[in-house]
Design a protein that fits this description.
Distance between the termini: 36 Å
Radius of gyration: 23 Å
Number of strands: 11
Order of helices and strands: EHHHEHEHEHEHHHEHEHEHEHEEH
CATH superfamily of the largest domain: NAD(P)-binding Rossmann-like Domain
CATH architecture of the largest domain: 3-Layer(aba) Sandwich
Helix content: 25-40%
Structural class: alpha/beta
Number of helices: 14
Strand order of the largest sheet: 7-6-8-9-10-11
Strand content: 5-15%
Length: about 350
């Protein structure tokens, strides 16, 4: 492939480069980024490898990225760069210290996907409680036509009303999940997020929970469903591990639409294999995309019917993606005007 030539901005407008546009625009480069395009001369790349970053960004004053890393070495290679806009809430893809040292502003897009993620959480819960897809597949295969009764059930169905939903992480997304879960009649328990790495058996006296949060060791035995919405930190990495699953009552569900690293995947496999865990709905894994032989995507596993894995789609409702693009453009416009909208650095 011929080396790409850096493009200069024209008419005094900054040159803007998007390093990984496809997950957001799904190929609609011209239509999707209309707000960002008003801020400068835009070049959008569907995907960018580590080796391609410096050439593609040469001469750019602004970079927008979702998952492509902007590290210290890249920042040092781009003397014209003044701004990095993260097309997500988390900013771990940017070396913030290096950006600060070089005077490069960094922004993020907070709280844009709460309704989208919350909708997927309830969809995953409803999958286990009503098995809509499974029943529809049986009907399509002729199961209802062969049934001597006016209805048939593949499995016992349960109402959400009266069930206890434990939410670990009650920020924007967790709050949206709580609101929707309550509308279904679920009892909402907001659990305290661990602030320091410690065994799950840590007592409330050792790590006091906020007044409106129940200590996690007390909350887990109450849960019919546990859903994770806390940040991935050293204190929460592998939070859903052996002690976590042992504390849950038999038959309970785990939902993770947060970060893959919140779940100790071998411990999850063991909990599924033992039959103690009623099911798990995952929108994130520790490695994304997963390898072809990942045990959590093995359709032949004896517990496969109690596991649903979706490919990190929770954030991606069209309304959510459009909201992200609009806020990203507002962040950049604010920076160009000397403002600090959603500034991280």
């Amino acid at each position: 492939m011929a080396e790409e030539k850096p493009q200069a901005g024209t008419r005094g407008r900054p040159r803007i480069v998007i390093l990984d546009s496809f997950t957001a625009d799904q190929g609609d480069v011209d239509g999707f980024w209309s707000d960002v395009r008003t801020q400068g001369e835009l070049t959008a790349y569907p995907r960018t490898s580590a080796a391609e970053r410096a050439v593609r960004c040469a001469g750019a004053q602004a970079i927008l990225t979702n998952k492509v890393a902007v590290d210290g070495a890249l920042l040092a290679a781009l003397p014209a760069l003044r701004y990095v806009g993260v097309l997500a809430t988390g900013t771990n893809v940017v070396d913030l210290d290096a950006a600060r040292a070089r005077g490069v502003a960094v922004t993020n897009v907070p709280a844009y996907a709460g309704e989208s993620v919350a909708g997927l959480v309830l969809a995953l819960i409803l999958h286990f409680y009503y098995d809509v897809a499974g029943h529809a597949a049986d009907v399509a295969a002729g199961g209802w036509a062969r049934c001597p009764d006016f209805s048939f059930f593949r499995k016992p169905l349960h109402e959400l009303s009266g069930k206890t939903l434990v939410i670990v992480g009650s920020g924007h997304i967790g709050g949206a999940v709580a609101r929707i879960g309550a509308a279904f009649g679920m009892t909402i328990v907001r659990a305290a997020v661990p602030r320091a790495a410690a065994p799950l058996t840590t007592s409330p006296a050792t790590e006091a929970a906020p007044a409106d949060r129940m200590p996690l060791p007390q909350a887990l035995p109450l849960a019919d469903v546990v859903t994770l919405h806390c940040p991935l930190t050293e204190a929460t990495r592998g939070l859903a591990g052996p002690a976590f699953f042992a504390a849950m009552k038999p038959g309970a569900l785990l939902i993770n639409t947060g970060r893959g690293g919140l779940v100790d995947e071998p411990a999850l496999l063991a909990a599924l294999g033992s039959g103690r865990l009623g099911g798990a709905g995952l929108d994130v894994l520790g490695v994304e995309p997963p390898p072809a032989d990942h045990p959590l995507t093995d359709r032949r596993a004896p517990w496969a019917a109690r596991l649903v894995v979706t490919p990190h789609i929770g954030w991606g409702a069209l309304e959510s993606r459009r909201r992200m693009e609009r806020v990203a453009a507002e962040n950049l416009a604010s920076f160009l005007d000397g403002g600090r909208l959603n500034r991280v650095v």
